[in-house]
Amino acid sequence: MKKSALSVTREDNFAEWYQQVIAEADLAEESGVRGCMVIRSWGYGIWERIQHLMDTEIKKAGVENCYFPLFIPLSYFEKEADHVDGFAKEMAVVTHHRLVSGEGGGLVPDAESRLEEPLVVRPTSETVIGQAMARWIQSWRNLPLKVNQWANVVRWEMRTRMFLRTSEFLWQEGHTAHADEADAMKEMLRALEMYRSFAEGPLAMPVIAGEKPENERFPGAVTTYSIEAMMQDGKALQAGTSHYLGTSFAQAAGIKYQDREGGQQYCHTTSWGTSTRMIGGVIMTHGDDDGLRCPPQIAPHQIVIIPMLREKDAEEDNKVLSYASSLQAELSALSAFGEAVRVHLDLKSEKASNKRWAWVKKGAPLIVEVGPRDVEGGNVAYLRRDRLYKDNGKPDSQFPARAEFVADAAAMLEEVHAGLHAEAKARLDRNIHRNVTDLQEFYGNSGKYPGWVELQWSKPTGAVLDKVVDQLKELKLTIRNVPVDAAPANGDCFFTGEPAVERILIGRAY
Amino acid sequence: MKKSALSVTREDNFAEWYQQVIAEADLAEESGVRGCMVIRSWGYGIWERIQHLMDTEIKKAGVENCYFPLFIPLSYFEKEADHVDGFAKEMAVVTHHRLVSGEGGGLVPDAESRLEEPLVVRPTSETVIGQAMARWIQSWRNLPLKVNQWANVVRWEMRTRMFLRTSEFLWQEGHTAHADEADAMKEMLRALEMYRSFAEGPLAMPVIAGEKPENERFPGAVTTYSIEAMMQDGKALQAGTSHYLGTSFAQAAGIKYQDREGGQQYCHTTSWGTSTRMIGGVIMTHGDDDGLRCPPQIAPHQIVIIPMLREKDAEEDNKVLSYASSLQAELSALSAFGEAVRVHLDLKSEKASNKRWAWVKKGAPLIVEVGPRDVEGGNVAYLRRDRLYKDNGKPDSQFPARAEFVADAAAMLEEVHAGLHAEAKARLDRNIHRNVTDLQEFYGNSGKYPGWVELQWSKPTGAVLDKVVDQLKELKLTIRNVPVDAAPANGDCFFTGEPAVERILIGRAY
Q1: Residue B490: pLDDT above 70?
Q2: Which of A124, B337, B346, B442 is the most buried (most CB within 10 A)?
């Protein structure tokens, strides 16, 4: 039987497997601070790659990065009633600005430093960016105004799960102001498409883009769209959202412009965001029982070279090191996905086999080992992380000539990417079910990972929608979205029996 | 008389001039949130350039980026007494995690959501990173451990000044753990040298690197070094610090390792940081009465092309646009400072002359204008931001052939850099005075911008040092540092008359 690098398999316990990948791949860990995680170097390196690639797309769209305050005065929230209702329950509140020694020698907030107006640690920045937009926009010439910020945000969470739901997380939030609804909707859909193609591209993570139902809208939004990815346990992960906010935030903050005729108009605004949650999605899309398989475009190192040193024969070690260094230089001169290939030479003082398994767990796409025999024969030994084992369960090491490996390396990285995407796409397609007539039966009897169900519905609102939502909730299901690419409706509503107007996706979700 | 783009000159009112550069160059603005600024797109673009270049140096030194929690439990601070004394006075404290509707309809912190242990918004992360290091380090094989984070930090400030002193600011903080003092000191000095060469390089800002006196040490540090830059008003700006922390943080957090002999030892730690404060330094080092002169390596756009469009003759406008676009492509293919040249085509709907002055105020190094006559003659018109005016006070526009301009552009960017650095270096050298015998007389009578004084001293400690510090304080002076490159002492202490052991720099400071 094949042995794998982790002690828990996905099949045994998916939730525990997820935690173990995070620990064993040095992605993150509990910080000791409630609800907050430490993002470790490999996890943060993945985030840096995501930031770099996403930021390039954001800038291409003419959006400018800025930075807005961490703290938001309470009064800003009070202005936008719907928004407050959505967020007021879970925010960190700063009430004092000084500590003093208390009784017993500990530290306590100084009562004399109580703030007149408490400050909220931003859960999102619509309100404070709205205030800035109101200062920056005077006339139609200033529109559209498109800004983005990379920042940390805080939403107090009772139950946390690393990368998926933490009190503090890192994200980007785009905020734009437009002259009219049409232009704002166009921007909202542009951001959605940017997220969709980013997920399918660098993350190799197939997603379904679509509109959220009324009950799942962002607090204060007129329309919310999302991208939804399918995890290996069949659950959905919302991996990015884009909102059309109408004029409600503009009215709250006074974002007005003079139109070409000299009249005063409220701007139409949008916001859109993605976060470190994507890393959770990548783990649960591509991970296997040996750890993470990191998509090459977001892998901090795409090729890792492990020199096999004996630490007894300095001359031999030097030959191996020099062979490894020149191999690194040669590989670094290659290009994959339009960028220089990222090659790491692992010089830690650790046994080569330990290093090999550490990189397997981290999911480096290509893991190369070079020892004295490779130097002599002009070869390399390598593992492809996406094809780790032979049929007999042994690691599938390859031993090509060095020149042959260098010639193939960039193409192999692109193959790893394509393979990861294809595997995930097949799983997504296979697990969307279109002929389900009884949700209770389906989700009760379909094994551990039943996937999603596509249904037709009449898009009910108000009390009828509430009833549908409650009915789904009993089965721990939610409406994920109305896929933009779904076939037109051609039947009756699954819930009301009325003529259907669109198709929706239903599933369990993170 | 020469007219300049700002309404206040440095000579008239340096503090107001500084604020005006920040406003007119779209660098930052007051946010409406106490002590916090909004960093606008040009300011944030400069910060992104600084981050990119500094991060490259940090990674080259084998330091890995991670991310640690925004919130630090009070108990972490209580463990390190000296550190607490230094910071306890000015921290934002989170005491509640929920808001509810209060009387009168406003929002108030929910009394039931009071935290058992208040959380401090990080003023710096030694304590929380120390906890992580204690988990990560077991043996000498794990050392040195070197991490860095890019983050926002908060230090409650009563009097704020944009970029120089704000309650929230952005920075990088490096934290390292070592087996012994010698290795930790080496790292501390490496970081200092990284900062020195970064300031002199990308920022074109000459600095003096040296050790801080005892009274100016980071809370809890054994040794603190800084780089000090001289602003145009003769004041000093501390632009980066590097600390050797001894084993005090290691003892507080339990950062121990097993040595080669099997014994348990405390690690020796360092920390080092630079922040958005550097942007304030760049403004006050290179700004002139027309706004910022942005050093080319950190300029988001190094060359800005303004097409002169009439908006009446579409055919002519198209020719100008096509000429400008191809010029942009040609210039973007050039390389300066080892990177591709960054060229921006300004297509805003705004008069060309307004655009030109906007870019002068922002300090784009080369500002190019192209109109129908340039298209016809195959020319460009350009301004060099470092040589804006002719002797007669008129803008010094040059009109070379396009090919000639393209051939010279990269070299001109390097010239702008060298010129800015040389100008600032001459000012720094000119304003360090070595023969001052009476500080009161010197600082009382030396005009507006007296600069710094280099003195010899006996390095007193305790009460004698306190007296020196108080005496300087009356003249609004502080000891900046003990320059690492200063000549050896060869006389008596300025303050005590005892034999001097080293030279110190004294000045007024931000």
Answers
A1: yes
A2: A124
Pairwise pLDDT comparison (B396 vs A81), residue with the higher score:
B396
Any A CB within 8 A of B442 CB: no
Q: Dump strand ranges (E) for B379-427.
A: 381-384
**Residue B226 host element (H or E):** strand B223-230
How far is C-alpha A129 from the geometric centre of its chain's CA atoms? 23
pLDDT at A88: 63
pLDDT confidence of residue B252: 94
d(CA B376, CA B379): 8
**From its phi and psi, is residue B262 left (phi > 0), alpha (psi between -120 and 50) or beta?**
left
Q: Model's pTM, two decimal places?
A: 0.97
What confidence score (pLDDT) does residue A20 get?
Answer: 98
Rounded Cα distance between B486 and A69, Å, is: 41
Contacts of B74 (CB under 8 A, 6+ apart): A99, A106, A107, A108, B117, B118, B119, B120
- A60-73 tens-digit pLDDT: 999 999 999 999 99
- Please report the domains of chain B, with CATH numbers, ordered by start residue: 14-91+125-286 (3.30.930.10), 301-414 (3.40.50.800), 432-507 (3.30.110.30)
Q: Considering only CB atoms, which chain B residues are within 8 Å of A131?
A: 31-32
What is the pLDDT averaged over residues A160-170? 96
- In this complex, the residue of B38, B48, B109 whose CB is nearest that of residue A68 is B38
| Per-residue model confidence (pLDDT) at position B2 | 62
- Cα separation of A438 and B301, whole Å? 60
Asked if B121 and A121 come within 8 Å (Cβ–Cβ), the reply is: yes
Partners of residue A141 in chain B, C-beta under 8 Å = 348-350
